[in-house]
Each structure stands twice: as C-alpha cells, then as structure tokens.
C-alpha cells in the first residue's frame, strides 16, 4: 500500500481498518544470495541492493526486534561538518540522500534541516572551526561562521558571558538537522520488503560456516541459513560477531548515553553543541530536549552507562544553557559504539571470500545510514568498494593512511 | 559502577581513569616480526563480551594503578588488585 494524503484521509474516514502490515514476518528460507547481519545499516543495505543492483534474494537478520539496536538509540542528528576529505565527501553523500529520503521510501522520515551550531568559546577554538568551515566549503558543503551577535539571534538562551566559557561565535551547517530514527528503520524495512527482501527479526547469528576460505552460510538461533555472500553491519557487536568468523578488528565496544527531558514549548530551534565540554542538544517534535555527551570511556556491552558521565553531560549543558537547570529528565538510555582506532568507519572485504565488513562507526553511525547502505550494497554487489569508501579500507591501519579526524592517534575514545 | 580500591575501599567511579586491557605488552622493536607485532599492539583489540582484566588509575585517591577484572556485559567487578605486583611477576 502506498502512503499518501489520500490514503490517510480514506483510512481515517473508514475506521483505519484497511492499513496493511508494513513488512512481512517471513520464516527464513534455506538459503539466500546475500545475508545482511544487523537491522540498522543492514536495512538500508538491503534496500539499495534490491533497488540499485537488482539483487532481491536477500535476508536481513536482526537479533532482536526491528529498531531495538542503535538505529533506535541514537539522538537522531544528521550533518556533514567534517574536516578530512574522505569523511566530508561520504557524509555529504549521506546528507544528500537524507534530503530526498521521505519521497524515496514513501515514508515520512521527518527530516528536519533545522541547522546545527557548533558553539565555540576561545580564539584557538575559533581558528579550528574556521579551518573546518573552510574545508567544508571547499568540498561543496554548506558552512557559515557566526559572530557572537549572530549566535545571539539563534540562541538567546545561551550564557554569553559565562566567566569560564563565554560564547565567542559558532560554526553553523544550515543543512544539518534531525530525522525521526524509528521512521528510518521502518521506512527502509518497508521499502526493502516491498522489493522482495526478507526481514527476519529475533534471529541472532551464532556462527559462520566457512569452507575453503569462503563463507557458505550462517548459524543462527533460528537454524542454519545458507548464503553466497554475507555482509556484517552490526555496529557495537562487530568484534563479537567478527570473532565468530575468526576476525580480529581495530574496534573497541564502548557505551554512550543519551537523555530526554519532559516536553516543553519550543525553546531550542536547532541542534547545538557546546564547545568547551561535550554536550549537544536538540528539541524533539514532542517538546523533549534530547541531549548527550561523551562516551563513558571503558569497554562495555551493557547498553547502560554510569553516573559520572551523567554529571559531566549535565554540567556541560548548564554551562551553555543555565536556564535548563529545572528541567526533569524523563529517560536515559545507552547504545553500544564500535569505536575504531582513528574515529572513522571501516568498509571492506575480509580475507574470507564472500564476507564483507561494515563497522567502526563510533558516535556517527546514524547520520551515515543511507550512504552506508548504498556504499555497502555496492561493495557486496560488485565485490569492490566505490570511490566514496576507498579511504575507509580495513588495510589503512596497516599502511598508516588513517582518517584521524581529531589528530589524536590510535585510541578508542575519540569521536 | 564502584571500584573497591585495595587502599581506599569502595569508591565512586568518577575518581578513576581508564587505560584499557591489562595484559597487552609493548613488543620488542628489535624482535622478529616487530612490524606485525606493533601493528597488533597499536591497532588491534581483543574486545570480549565477558570478564576482562583492565588497568584503572585511582587519580582521585591513592594514585595507584589497579588491575580490575570486570565483566563487560554487566559491569560486575570480579576482583581488584594493585597492578604493580602483577606487573613485577611477568
């Protein structure tokens, strides 16, 4: 069923009885041409495999229900304000795909390009943001440097004269913004399903069948499923699932927390980041302020964090917006991050024939979803990376061609 | 998560700084296969879902390095010991 204003009206007038299921709940077949493990980027990958490469005998395996993982745990921000050429081009492609995604999927993904402001508080920080903004503009990405007075127009609530962290200005990407993350999972699932992809929920991969250096299929909690090609897009569980196939990866699993306050009237119109600590915030359509900050900083698979980071995030938030101090936090949660050793993602073939890797997303997996799916589909279908993702090879760590956005070396707490 | 420091007793997580895997050793640069060994040392990680021995620094207390065995699935801490005697043993 195609969604439209007419369909909404018709179903509304007839008691909403004829809406159909958005995607099927098929039993796994005995084998597929391609299996994608992970129902986040995996859904986008399956969609683009079907749409751009005509490969429709595809299954997406999700270990829990759809949207239970990072695609439903992030803070929904999209942006392409990166410094390094490889990253800028890739995330800009993602942003372009976001801009047309609702029409593409016939699903209201609620893409809201409300602009992202990276506020800065010192001269050196201003220099760094000027450099980043110039790099973005050279790459054809929108960026504007805002003076203190201009920031005042956008963020009247901010503490401009904070003794330690006075607001000196901001770098703005007007096309940045937010997306409804559940709608992204559901929209891709529905669109992929309509093209014949099987989406199999509650199906966890427990092993790989590898013969003669080639992958033959996967063992799952719902039995063995054969496949000519298998793509891994399991984010925080990359090391764990990779280890089942004998892979050792430049990845650490970490935990990051996110928070949402009670709903209030429109207060913060943009995505805003605090430059002197780590805090970022946007306001959801329901009125809650959605915010977060740093990772907890230790390896974890627990999907929950600890209190010191809660305190740290709250301090950052109040240093920028003291007026938020009386808001009550309704919920907090956490997601697993696949922190790579240079802070940039990894797309590559592996030494095992037919096994492909998509991981290393650090903080930034959600905003990459469409471009990640498109590029991973290309890698799987053509057995070679597109130019856009050549910089993200697994081999870059050995050759030294790392994409270290922060310039801080090999550690897993960067981005 | 609270860590029971052998000197200071059970203390808040905010007093501690994390280093990572306790059993990684810097390879010998003059040894055979040093290039591979350094690649593994710098970039490749064991990333188990389960008990993991790690180094934590008690900067907000006795300033000792601690060897903490912690389950990465639920943050339960199995044991805490001073890192120095462990390091001296190997």
Could you explain how this protein is built, in words?
The complex is a heterodimer of chains A (415) and B (90). By secondary structure, chain A is α/β, with parallel strands linked by helices. Chain A has helices spanning 5-13, 41-53, 85-99, 101-105, 123-138, 148-154, 181-194, 238-244, 307-320, 365-382, 396-399, and strands spanning 31-37, 58-61, 77-78, 116-120, 144-147, 169-173, 177-178, 198-200, 205-211, 214-220, 223-232, 251-261, 271-274, 279-283, 289-299, 329-340, 346-349, 355-359. In chain A, a hairpin with a 5-residue loop joins strand 14 and strand 15. Chain A has 2 domains: 23-107 and 180-250 and 342-399, 3-Layer(bba) Sandwich (FAD/NAD(P)-binding domain); 116-178 and 253-340, D-Amino Acid Oxidase, subunit A, domain 2 (D-Amino Acid Oxidase, Chain A, domain 2, 2-Layer Sandwich), CATH 3.30.9.10. The mean pLDDT of chain A is 95. The longest helix of chain A is centred in the C-terminal third of the chain and has 18 residues, at 365-382. In chain A, helix 2 crosses helix 10. In chain A, the strands form 3 sheets. In chain A, strands 1, 2, 8, 9, 10, 11, 17 and 18 form an 8-stranded mixed β-sheet that branches. In chain A, strands 5-6-4-13-14-15-12-16 form an 8-stranded mixed β-sheet. Chain A has a two-stranded antiparallel ribbon with strand order 3-7. Chain B is an alpha+beta fold and 90 residues long. Helix content of chain B is 19%, strand content 37%. Chain B contains 2 helices and 6 strands, in the order βββαβββα. Chain B has a 4-stranded antiparallel β-sheet. Chain B has a two-stranded antiparallel ribbon with strand order 1-2. In chain B, a hairpin with a 7-residue loop joins strand 4 and strand 5 (65-71). Chains A and B meet through strand 12, strand 15 and helix 9 of A and helix 1 of B.
């Amino acid at each position: 069923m195609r969604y439209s204003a007419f369909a909404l009206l018709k179903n509304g007038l007839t008691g909403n009885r004829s809406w159909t299921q958005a995607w099927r709940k098929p039993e796994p077949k005995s084998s597929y041409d391609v299996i994608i493990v992970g129902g986040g980027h995996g859904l986008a990958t399956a969609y683009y495999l079907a749409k751009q490469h005509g490969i429709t005998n595809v299954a997406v395996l999700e270990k829990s229900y759809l949207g239970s993982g990072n695609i439903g745990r992030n803070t929904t921000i999209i942006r392409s304000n990166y410094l390094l050429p490889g990253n800028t081009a890739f995330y800009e492609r993602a942003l372009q795909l976001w801009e047309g995604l609702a029409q593409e999927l016939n699903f209201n993904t609620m893409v809201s390009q409300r602009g992202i402001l990276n506020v800065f508080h010192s001269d050196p920080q201003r220099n760094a943001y000027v450099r980043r903004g110039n790099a973005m503009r050279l790459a054809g990405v929108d960026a504007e440097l805002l003076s203190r007075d201009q920031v005042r127009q956008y963020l009247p609530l901010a503490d401009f004269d904070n003794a330690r962290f006075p607001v000196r200005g901001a770098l703005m990407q007007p096309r940045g913004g937010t997306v409804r993350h559940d709608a992204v999972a559901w929209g891709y699932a529905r669109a992929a399903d309509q093209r014949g992809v099987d989406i199999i929920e509650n199906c966890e991969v427990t092993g790989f069948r590898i013969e003669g250096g080639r992958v033959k299929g996967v063992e799952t909690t719902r039995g063995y499923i054969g496949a000519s090609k298998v793509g891994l897009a399991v984010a925080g569980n990359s090391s764990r699932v990779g280890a089942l196939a004998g892979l050792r990866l430049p990845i650490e699993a970490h935990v990051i927390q996110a928070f949402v306050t009670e709903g209030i009237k429109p207060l913060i119109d943009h995505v805003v980041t605090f430059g002197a600590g780590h805090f970022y915030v946007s306001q959801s359509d329901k009125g809650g302020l959605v915010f977060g900050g740093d990772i907890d900083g230790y390896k974890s698979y627990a999907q929950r964090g600890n209190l010191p980071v809660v305190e740290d995030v709250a301090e950052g938030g109040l240093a920028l917006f003291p007026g938020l101090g009386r808001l009550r936090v309704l919920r907090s949660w956490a997601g697993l991050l696949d922190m790579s050793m240079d802070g940039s993602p990894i797309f590559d073939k592996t030494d095992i024939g037919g096994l492909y890797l998509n991981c290393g997303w650090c903080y930034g997996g959600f905003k990459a979803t469409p471009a990640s799916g498109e590029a991973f589909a290309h890698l799987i279908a053509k057995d070679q990376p597109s130019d856009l993702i050549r910089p993200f090879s697994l081999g870059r760590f050995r050759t030294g061609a790392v994409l270290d956005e922060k310039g801080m070396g090999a550690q897993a707490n960067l981005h | 998560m609270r860590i029971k420091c052998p000197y200071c007793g059970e203390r808040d997580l905010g007093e501690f700084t994390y280093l990572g895997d306790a059993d990684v050793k810097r390879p010998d640069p003059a040894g055979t296969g040093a290039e591979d060994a350094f690649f593994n040392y710098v970039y490749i990680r064991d990333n188990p879902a389960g008990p993991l021995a790690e180094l934590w620094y008690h900067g907000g207390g006795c300033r000792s390095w601690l060897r903490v065995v912690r389950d990465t699935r639920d943050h339960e801490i199995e044991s805490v010991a001073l890192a120095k005697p462990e390091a001296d043993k190997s």
